[in-house]
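User: I'm curious whether this sequence folds into something compact or stays loose and floppy. Could you predict its structure so I can see for myself?
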Amino acid sequence: MPYTIVVADPSPSVQKAAQLVFTEPEFRICAFEDGAALLAAVDGLKPDAVVVSLTLPGRDGYELGRALRSRKGLEAVPLVGLRGGFEGLDADRTVPPEYDEVLAKPFDSERLAAVVRELIARKTGPATLPEEPVPPPASAEAVRREPAAGLKDWVRAELVGMEREIEKRVRARVAADLKEWMSGDGQGSGPKE
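Assistant: Here's the prediction. I'll summarize afterward.
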């Protein structure tokens, strides 16, 4: 059964962005241009999340948030507000407490989708329970007995051995170059290449 996402925004581009990001069959979008139309239809829609512009014509998003939270069955529905990026900030109305999240317009549609998905998951809980119980942490004795512990020691010994071999080869090469340079024509002209 698809999640029902209600979007109330007067902008056709915001409605279209919501339709593009919340695609079928996982989601069903119901778009409204104003708060009055949303309030008239919301009870019959049984939304899983509501996305509302705070600057709706008529009843704005602030009033709409309070009205939605006061309705039976909608108290716990995730509510996301969209605030215009160029709006002046009213200190008393900056972050409405009725909203679970408020995003600024223009918004990243993927961010909106992630926020709505997270809020739905938080409100509904996990879709399934784990198949197997999580095993208890292993004791220190059990960890020491595991073959992986022996493997770590072997790898460490191999690495130390390789480092020693490389160091011996570098010393031998430097000693040979120095000896060749010293036995040269006495001018200190360096090794010949």
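Summary: Strands lie at 3-8, 27-32, 49-53, 79-83, 101-104. The chain has a mean pLDDT of 79.
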